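Same chain as my last thread, 212 residues:
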Amino acid sequence: MSGQTLRDAHAAETRARILAVADVLLLSGGYRSMTIARLAREAGISPQTIYNSVGGKAEVVKAVYDIRLAGDDMPMAMNDRPEIRAVLDAPDAMQSLWLYARNCRMIYQRVGPLLGVLLDHGPGGDELLENFTAATDRERRIGNTVVVTNIEQRFGLPERWTTRRAVDLVWTLTGPEVADRLVRRAGWSLDTYETWLARALQTELAETGPPA
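reply #2:
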């Protein structure tokens, strides 16, 4: 193994340790308690190493979120992952939207605990949280647009929906704050949430046949 390979492996291990500790600190103590200084102490490294490896607090929080969102730290776009490919390659709109609801449920299972901490805190004028919320909203909307466009091009959308309005709808229905409100705060089971979301998406967006 070359010197560069060893350095890369060490850097990856350091980054993984930082984010694993940050995940624990966020979930156990909340957003405010996860400072770079505390993270450095708990991880047994210097603050500068955190800045060099991941970045500041905003980058750390986003990286922890991204790992939970994807389920791993592999450099693979969400749209290239098997679960999303299944959504995009489904044989009809009903099946595509059901699979998408299932994927949203799986994502909420991974990110829900972290989002609960962040949503409970609320942006409240905190620039880091406001930027985090804005970034994740943009990313979700991009993913929503891919799914809606796929439905429209392959199967058609109901006439009452333009592409943009359909994206607005999906962006709202699949919002993490909706899942958090229903599952964590209202006590819905994940199965109930998934079924509700699938039926809501299908009722609004599924056509019976391909576009003319």
